[in-house]
Amino acid sequence: MRSSRDAVIRYRGFVLMQQANHSWLIRPERSPMVILPFRTPTCSLADAKALVD
Q: Which position among 1, 7, 18, 35 has the lowest Cβ density within 10 Å, counted as fewest Cβ atoms?
């Protein structure tokens, strides 16, 4: 179960989901997936968005 502190952000066709260890799970918002989901190392939301850009 996800904690209420976990953030889910939609950004440029991706869904960024903050994990308990402050890393981010990034996956395409729509299917079929052209890009596979991936996790970031521990970073800020701005850093996760920069990876998407």
A: 1
Q: Is the pTM of this model over 0.85?
A: no
* Residue range of the domain that includes 24: 8-52
Rg, Å, the chain Cα set: 11
Tens of pLDDT, residue by residue, the chain (53 residues): 445 456 899 999 999 999 999 899 999 888 676 677 888 889 999 999 998 88
Q: Which amino acid, one-letter code, is at 15?
A: V
Give how many domains the chain has, as a whole number.
1
Residue 48, Cβ density class (10 Å: 0-12 exposed, 13-18 middle, ≥19 buried): buried
